[in-house]
Amino acid sequence: MIVGELINSSRKAIRPAIKDYDANAIIALAKKQEMAGADYLDINCGSFTLDEPDRLVWLTNVIKEATKLPLCLDSPNVNALTAALPLINDRPILVNSITAEKSRFESILPLVQQYRTGIIALCMSDKGIAKTTEDRIRIVDKLVNDLVKSDVPVEKIYLDPMVQPVATTFNAAKPIFETVRYVKKEYPGIHCICGLSNVSFGLPNRQLINRYFLSQIIAFGMDSFILNPTDQLLMGAYYVSKTLTGEDKFCVEYLKKYRNGLYADSFNYS
Amino acid sequence: MIVGELINSSRKAIRPAIKDYDANAIIALAKKQEMAGADYLDINCGSFTLDEPDRLVWLTNVIKEATKLPLCLDSPNVNALTAALPLINDRPILVNSITAEKSRFESILPLVQQYRTGIIALCMSDKGIAKTTEDRIRIVDKLVNDLVKSDVPVEKIYLDPMVQPVATTFNAAKPIFETVRYVKKEYPGIHCICGLSNVSFGLPNRQLINRYFLSQIIAFGMDSFILNPTDQLLMGAYYVSKTLTGEDKFCVEYLKKYRNGLYADSFNYS
After folding, report:
1. How far off is chain A from B222, nearest CA to CA, in Å?
2. Is B269 in Cβ contact with A200 (below 8 Å)?
3. By the 8 A CB rule, do B122 and B104 touch?
4. How many alpha carbons fall within 13 Å on the CB side of residue A50?
5. B216 touches chain A (CB under 8 A)
6. Which of A39, A264, B44, B199 is the residue whose CA sits 20 to 30 A from A83?
7. 3-class SS at A70?
8. Using CB atoms, which residue from A212, A250, A258 is nearest to B237?
9. pLDDT surpassing 50 at residue A21
10. Identity of the residue in A174, A207, A266 whose CB atom sits nearest the CB atom of B269
11. d(Cα B215, Cα B238) in Å, to the nearest integer?
């Protein structure tokens, strides 16, 4: 599953459109991501710290008219979520995100319950971001247990193991691989989700690194991604990787995308 | 570890050079692969069925003068191996390959013992190529046991799980992932090796598929590859993937290759 990440006020190219209430720019960006293959659209205006709730309401209203895609409300701000959630009643919603931090868990959970949303659960506790595989697994166990106990259905839980940069964290990818493998084995039905760009932070040619990382974590069972769906090379990596891991029976999807001109960076085998 | 695969008489571009004893063409191809980063050079003239031993002797003599790289004698033909092995006494040798087939194992093993070569061991028995993960693991256990019992040091064993095409074998990659993971866990010190191109057989844009497959199996522990080292995109995939899996501390190798212009298919992250 692909969550289109482009409508985010921390992106320089988008911020002015949100700042100036430029609905047409937002609509175009929503449609562009839908055309490119997004299954959900992320909506984030967290950098507008003073009036995030109003901005999120405006964005939600604009985007829900522009597309029928499910929406991912991306905010830790309870007021913003409380204002925007009642506006969406005709499609699935994902809330991005909850953590194992006590106060954040307790403030976000009632909204997830009331609006029966999907929930992205980050491997983060009151001790901070998980570092080792063991840290992550401990937080995963706690999050899953607490969410299921609170009547959140497993298929609505999206665990995010929190990818760290390989440039600054030694062996950053391994705990992600192992955590995803653990979740898929121990909790069938629960999803794993992540963003990609953090892995390449601080290095040149980030998108190349992101593509190979995507491919690797798909092989370990990651099934959902928050990414830029208009990046054709990245979407190529996504479809090729799914074909390799057996999710694309008879390579039907691969061949269809090929005929539509995806996989632009390849050349013929000789 | 990279085994350069280009000197192979089944490749149309190379066959004439072997047929006509064109030493200069072979020397050029050896040096080109060395420059491109090969650690070993594969030598295969198996398509010359009538005089493979003579051809292999000629190739070995030409190539050992052209480069100091270790050589990988790629033949199941005992006569060819027996003729060529004594010619190499100044560098490591890899024999490609042995299997768990009774007659092949018994005929190749004495050469491995006598010349203390490394040995590529294919997941193949008298019942044919292994199909499931369980088949592969059973053959792996037998091969490792029989080789170690015969005084072949573990660090000289290169297990090849035998990659099958995803287009014709449902879920072809998964047993490869699991077998490599098993080997690395159960038999530390033993290498895993494979060719790549078989995985994409029958599909368009094969090199793109090969690159992502390379990346995925590196994440599971595959450490050696028989491939075309002059394919820059593929070598890019190799270095990026090693950086992601923590084998490239502080990303030193990645940055060095970047400054040297590798990773040509990338563009800047924005």
Report:
1. 13
2. yes
3. no
4. 1
5. yes
6. A39
7. coil
8. A212
9. yes
10. A207
11. 7
Q: How far is B237 from chain A (nearest CA, A)?
A: 7
Q: What pLDDT band is residue A257 in, cutting at 50, 70 and 90?
A: confident
B212–A258 CB contact, under 8 Å:
no
Tokens of B239: 């270095």
A140-179: b (≥16 Cβ within 10 Å) or e: beebbebbeeeebeeebbbbbbbbbbbbebeebbebbbbb
pLDDT of residue A259: 87
Please give the backbone phi and psi of residue B255, each rounded to the nearest 5 degrees, phi first. -70, -35
Q: How far apart are the first and last CA of chain B?
A: 34
Instruction: Considering only the beta carbons, identify the residue of A13, A208, A237 that sits closest to B266.
Output: A208
Query: What is the pLDDT, as a whole number, of residue A267?
Result: 37
Q: Span A14-30, mean pLDDT?
A: 97
* CB nearest to B240's CB, from A212, A258, A266: A212
Residue contact A216–B218, C-beta within 8 A: yes
Q: Is B47 on the interface with A (CB under 8 A)?
A: no
Cβ–Cβ below 8 Å for A166 and B246: yes
Closest among B110, B235, B258, B15 to A202, alpha carbons compared: B258
Q: Which of A71, A18, A80, A75 is nearest to A41 (CA)?
A: A71
* Residues A102-110, mean pLDDT to the nearest whole number: 98
The arithmetic mean of pLDDT across residues A116-135, rounded, is 96
Mean pLDDT of A168-192: 95
Give the pLDDT of residue A262: 73
- The segments of chain B whose pLDDT lies below 50 read 266-270
A152 and B CB contact within 8 Å: no
A-B C-beta contacts closer than 8 Å: 128
The pTM of the whole model exceeds 0.90 = yes
Give the closest residue to A65 by CA, choosing from A87, A83, A37: A87
Distances (CA, A) of B92 to B70, B118, B119, B226, B243: 5, 8, 11, 16, 27
Q: Which chain A residues are closer than 8 Å to B194 by Cβ?
A: none
ipTM of the complex: 0.92
pLDDT at B268: 33
Q: Indicate the residue of A207, A249, A267 with minimum beta-carbon distance to B207.
A: A267
Q: Do A206 and B172 touch (CB under 8 A)?
A: no
CA dist B198 and B166 (Å) reads 9
For chain B, say whether A244 makes contact (Cβ under 8 Å): yes
d(CA A34, CA A32): 5
Q: What's the pLDDT score for residue B122?
A: 97
**pLDDT tens, A56-105?**
999 999 999 999 999 999 999 999 999 999 999 999 999 999 999 999 99
- Going from the C-alpha of B152 to that of each of B111, B185, B226, the distances in angstroms are 11, 19, 22
Output DSSP code: residue B92. Answer: -
Distance (Å) from the alpha carbon of B160 to chain A's nearest alpha carbon: 18
**Is the separation of the CB atoms in B41 and B4 below 8 Å?**
yes
